[in-house]
User: Which sequence fits this backbone?
DNA sequence: GAACACGTAAACAGCG
DNA sequence: ACGCTGTTTACGTGTT
């Protein structure tokens, strides 16, 4: 209070070591202790194998396509789902981290991204050890699906794609210009294009530059494939008459050079271009195959989207058996929110782990002053599947010096709820933090202070006098209450993550990791309610946030006895809060998350814990 | 721009 | 005196 002016000076004084270093420790901390070294070292062996895998996958894709084409069953335009026995290896998102150091990675990437990368690498390690590609491939497939979701979501939010989940890729094709499609392929697959893959597969000697796909789709595509839009947005039905080619404008010709992906041949005029086109880019088998591979990829993406949605549906159905969430939360006709492998459904208020744009900012380039690492608000708001997240990435956080994407409050809450008695002393909370997170093994003064601060500040943490001292418990009602009642899916977050932040400049692998992280946005609360915008099916991705918490609680609470609030009986005095009686709504549930619970919870207890009904009745 | 949430820093008090 | 615990205030930043 007396430090209003002093506070500024204090921040700059050397005495404020914690304050300053805590910020700088985001970068320099890695210099001190290499918390994430175990995961990072994995990256050293992965690049070559990844490339091999990628090449093999590309080869496989091309061969598969050619086989299908030879068998005559391929009709590129048909959008009917082909049940290919082999998944097209579109998941090539794992480009090698290459020369990036762990520290750099941490600065570039947010923890979930790093986590994604490390997971990928670990999965590949395991795969190598097992001598089987199956595992990694499946994981990549999942990640692929996640990336698809993210892209679709992104497009939807930009209004590019109507929302028909079962034909997501179909609409994608219709809505996107070829260059967008190719860019999508790049982004999604992590490889420059299927053309590149094909080059690798066939040993073609095309130019390696495929990055400038301004109007990248070959004419053969428009001739053979039902891609109607052109880069400039105009409708372009597959007419391939020479007339068009001589009119002076050609989708593949601009600024005096051929815009065939990877070509860039200089052509002084249209005639020369046409000549070049006929010579170099004739509609031969090769170019056709390229395009069809593209299409095949797109179709497979569609298939995967469908499978993913189906799987999601099943997951929801199974989890709904416990939580009775399925039918209520997802009206018929509405697709269920896709699930990422890393973010299983945690029904109540729990979104997936989302990287926060702010975190990315902070880690990447925001070295603003003493305001610490990041605000984890987003993660807290939308992606607090702490239980599942931690359960799945326990080892990661334990070993990697990466800040968990959760707020202190949610971490504390989780620590408390995870404890046998749902109560912890302050020191036990400390220990939980250090035990679970390598990140919290340093700068102890800072985060411990934050923990204490949070405990005191938030009403959801209830101090209970014990015989042995004081313990902290969680008032679940308050915890739910403290969320603002109305939250949306943070479209700005999506925008920031996808379009901004130098996203395009990132290596494909980082993009993949980023996308994987951001993909969890699909599990974030809907931008609009299904009622108000039923067309935004794909965007309805879960009533996971506070706004829906109450409703879900209402529908769930009475039907899931095992999830009812724990009976709390503790004869102790709580943190004094004069006005609390009024706010507690006179219901004796202020300590509902208290110490004693007699019901042994299932193994996935923590997932359920996250969903403790709060008996809010409005 | 205001309100809010969050993270961080810091002062302070009580206690062992 | 010291450290721990707990409370409180202040401030910067990001989000809504």
Assistant:
């Amino acid at each position: 209070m007396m430090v209003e002016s002093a506070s500024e000076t204090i921040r700059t004084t050397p005495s404020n070591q914690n304050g300053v270093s805590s910020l700088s420790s985001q970068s320099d901390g890695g210099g001190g202790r290499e918390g994430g070294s175990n995961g990072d070292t994995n990256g050293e062996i992965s690049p070559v194998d990844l490339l091999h895998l990628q090449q093999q996958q590309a080869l496989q894709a091309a061969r598969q396509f050619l086989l299908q084409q030879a068998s005559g069953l391929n009709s590129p335009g048909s959008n009917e789902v082909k049940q290919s026995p082999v998944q097209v290896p579109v998941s090539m998102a794992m480009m090698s981290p290459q020369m990036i150091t762990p520290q750099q990675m941490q600065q570039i990437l947010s923890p979930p991204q790093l986590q994604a990368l490390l997971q990928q690498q670990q999965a590949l390690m395991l795969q190598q050890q097992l001598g089987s590609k199956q595992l990694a491939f499946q994981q990549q497939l999942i990640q692929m699906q996640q990336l698809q979701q993210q892209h679709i979501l992104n497009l939807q939010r930009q209004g590019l794609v109507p929302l028909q989940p079962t034909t997501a890729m179909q609409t994608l094709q219709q809505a996107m210009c070829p260059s967008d499609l190719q860019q999508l392929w790049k982004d999604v697959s992590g490889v420059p294009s299927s053309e590149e893959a094909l080059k690798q597969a066939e040993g073609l000697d095309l130019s390696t530059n495929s990055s400038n796909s301004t109007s990248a789709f070959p004419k053969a595509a428009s001739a053979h494939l039902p891609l109607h839009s052109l880069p400039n947005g105009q409708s372009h039905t597959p007419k391939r008459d020479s007339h068009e080619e001589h009119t002076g404008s050609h989708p593949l010709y601009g600024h005096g050079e051929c815009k065939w992906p990877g070509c860039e041949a200089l052509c002084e005029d249209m005639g020369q271009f046409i000549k070049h086109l006929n010579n170099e880019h004739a509609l031969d088998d090769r170019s056709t195959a390229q395009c069809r591979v593209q299409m095949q990829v797109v179709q497979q993406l569609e298939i995967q989207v469908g499978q993913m949605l189906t799987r999601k549906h099943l997951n929801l159905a199974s989890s709904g058996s416990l939580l009775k969430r399925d039918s209520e939360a997802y009206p018929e006709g509405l697709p269920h929110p896709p699930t990422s492998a890393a973010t299983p459904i945690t029904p109540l208020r729990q979104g997936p782990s989302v990287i926060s744009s702010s975190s990315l900012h902070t880690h990447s380039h925001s070295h603003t002053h003493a305001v610490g690492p990041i605000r984890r608000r987003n993660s807290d708001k939308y992606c607090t599947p702490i239980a599942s997240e931690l359960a799945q990435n326990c080892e990661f956080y334990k070993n990697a010096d990466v800040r968990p994407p959760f707020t202190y409050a949610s971490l504390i809450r989780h620590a408390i709820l995870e404890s046998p008695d749902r109560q912890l002393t302050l020191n036990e909370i400390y220990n939980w933090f250090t035990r679970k997170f390598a990140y919290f093994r340093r700068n102890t003064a800072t985060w411990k202070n934050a923990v204490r601060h949070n405990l005191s500040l938030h009403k959801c943490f209830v101090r209970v006098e014990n015989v042995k001292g004081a313990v902290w418990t969680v008032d679940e009602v308050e915890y739910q209450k403290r969320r603002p009642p109305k939250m949306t899916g943070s479209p700005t977050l999506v925008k920031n993550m996808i379009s901004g932040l130098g996203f395009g400049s990132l290596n494909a692998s980082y993009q993949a990791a980023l996308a994987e992280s951001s993909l969890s946005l699909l599990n974030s609360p809907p931008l609009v309610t299904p009622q108000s915008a039923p067309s935004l099916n794909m965007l309805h991705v879960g009533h996971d946030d506070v706004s829906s918490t109450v409703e879900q609680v209402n529908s769930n609470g009475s039907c899931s006895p095992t999830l009812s609030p724990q009976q709390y009986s503790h004869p102790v005095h709580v943190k004094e809060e004069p006005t609390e009686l009024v706010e507690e709504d006179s219901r004796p549930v202020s300590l509902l998350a208290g110490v004693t619970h007699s019901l042994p919870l299932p193994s996935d207890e923590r997932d359920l814990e996250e969903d403790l009904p709060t008996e809010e009745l409005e």
User: Anything to note?
Assistant: The longest strand of chain A covers residues 461-466. The mean pLDDT of chain A is 47. Chain A is about 50% helix and 5% strand.
